[in-house]
Write a structure and sequence with these properties.
single chain, TIM Barrel, two-stranded antiparallel ribbon, 30% helix, globular
Length: 466
């Protein structure tokens, strides 16, 4: 994959790929709770496989630059029981895998070229095998700073106005996210940024015969963003409109949000928070919720029958770090004395966006499957860093209002054996109301891209069909 990030939680070490969310702040776990066990949701049987464009088409060992290889691999996926694809159509460069009126077409990268009609061909080949075809967008990412490439770099005025401003170090130094050498996130609150994505969503929905559209990276980059003047002024207005707090206009920004910072596992995170920190989290979640509502309208205004969904990390207990509340609007973390969301502010629950999507994919990227497999979690009911514990929590906070697709990372998580991969797939399918998302197809056919250094089609087939 194009990048790998490292993240630790409790005693569990997990590696995440670039495509999916990457980090969890330190946690000491959730204490045991005396409650009746959660009944598993009605098992879903949709088996979706993600097709990351950068890895599969342009990666060193990627095979999706060849139509012959694409057809062959899709035959193998069909044999495994895969029922659909999730096809990247907007990359982290901000470019698209098709000819767009709103951005540059990503025709080549790293010396490799894509088929001219890549998206059309992949959709047609999926349909030929009775597979569904979903598309995905890296929503708020518009450039790759490590190679100074992408839509943001091609459009300096857009970049200057909209690039996310982040806290760069423990001293609280502010700067552009591109100066950190990371993916270039835009500020999700900026109207121009939102409109650009909405234009692409409408274009994609109109252009292709798709079954669904999935938002990926529909979030802030991390807890250290966005600290631009635009966000400051919008937050001041939010405080006045929402809480009738005119005094917020005189705040010491950003110290009244976060007073001091530290670096943990390579991430800049709060050390001492300020008096407006919880309200700031509320504001950021409202920004993302507002955009998700607009994105839904954009899809449905073009093709009402196209499913609208989102991918999120399963670790809800810290997902406020990226400004996202993917729970049901009727779940109130502030009033939840079971999960103890101490970061929540009164009313935060109303920022939940679950009801705005038709389906939700959650990244359950863990080697631990059952809670009783670790003595530290055996007495718990919820634990965001095991499959059972996270799925319990997901059922709890989504109230089973929408189909959930649990997800497994086949390549960046160090499974001990193929049998463990099969067991994880079986468990997710037994628990979820929608099915499973397998990330990513490149891990199945490219031994270089998984820990076991073997093809994984047989492990997937065993997991899906048994």
């Amino acid at each position: 994959m194009k990048k790998v990030f490292c993240c630790a939680a409790l005693v569990l070490m997990v590696l995440f790929s670039c495509k999916k969310d990457r980090r969890e702040p330190p946690t000491v776990g959730t204490p045991p709770i005396e409650e009746e066990p959660i009944e598993p949701t009605q098992p879903g049987r949709e088996v979706l496989t993600w097709v990351d464009a950068q890895s599969n088409v342009f990666g060193t060992y990627g095979k999706f630059s060849s139509k012959t290889e694409i057809s062959s691999i899709l035959d193998r996926l069909k044999d495994c029981g895969v029922t659909g694809l999730v096809i990247d159509v907007k990359l982290g460069t901000g470019y698209t895998m098709y000819n767009s009126a709103y951005t540059t077409e990503q025709k080549s990268m790293g010396g490799k070229n894509k088929p001219d009609d890549y998206v059309e061909f992949l959709i047609a080949e999926a349909k030929k095998r009775q597979m569904k075809a979903y598309v995905s967008l890296m929503t708020f990412v518009d450039g790759e700073a490590s190679i100074a490439t992408g839509y943001a770099f091609d459009n300096p005025e857009y970049k200057e106005k909209n690039e996310s401003i982040v806290v760069k170090d423990a001293s609280g130094t502010l700067g552009r996210i591109s100066s950190m050498g990371h993916s270039v996130f835009m500020n999700p609150a900026q109207p121009e940024v939102q409109q650009r994505v909405l234009n692409l969503i409408k274009e994609i929905t109109e252009k292709f015969e798709i079954d669904g559209l999935i938002l990926d990276f529909c979030r802030y980059s991390d807890i250290n963003s966005d600290f631009s003047d635009f966000s400051k002024n919008q937050f001041i207005k939010f405080m006045k409109d929402k809480f009738n707090d005119a005094s917020a206009a005189n705040m010491n920004f950003p110290r009244d949000i976060v007073n001091t910072w530290t670096v943990s596992s390579g991430q800049v995170v709060p050390s001492v928070t300020g008096k407006y920190f919880k309200q700031w989290l509320y504001y950021r979640a409202s920004v993302i919720q507002d955009f998700v509502k607009k994105a839904r309208v954009a899809v449905k205004s073009v093709k009402p029958d196209v499913a609208f969904g989102s991918y999120v990390g399963a670790w809800y207990g810290s997902y406020h770090y990226v400004g996202v509340n993917w729970a049901s609007k009727d779940y109130d973390p502030f009033q939840d004395y079971n999960l103890r969301m101490d970061w929540a502010y009164p009313g935060y629950g109303e920022t939940g966006y679950l009801e705005e999507v038709d389906l939700l994919m959650t990244g359950n990227y863990f080697t631990q499957i059952m809670l009783n497999e670790n003595p530290l979690t055996a007495g718990m009911k919820y634990h965001w860093w095991s499959m059972e514990g996270s799925l319990n929590g997901i059922d709890y906070i989504t109230k089973n209002r929408r189909p959930i697709y649990g997800s497994i990372d086949l390549g960046n998580v160090p499974y001990a054996s193929k049998a463990e991969i099969s067991r994880a797939i079986q468990y997710i399918l037994s628990r979820t109301s929608g099915g499973i998302m397998l990330f990513d197809v490149v891990h199945m056919y490219g031994p270089q891209y998984n820990y076991l250094k073997e093809e994984l089609f047989d492990a997937v087939k065993t997991g899906v069909q048994n």
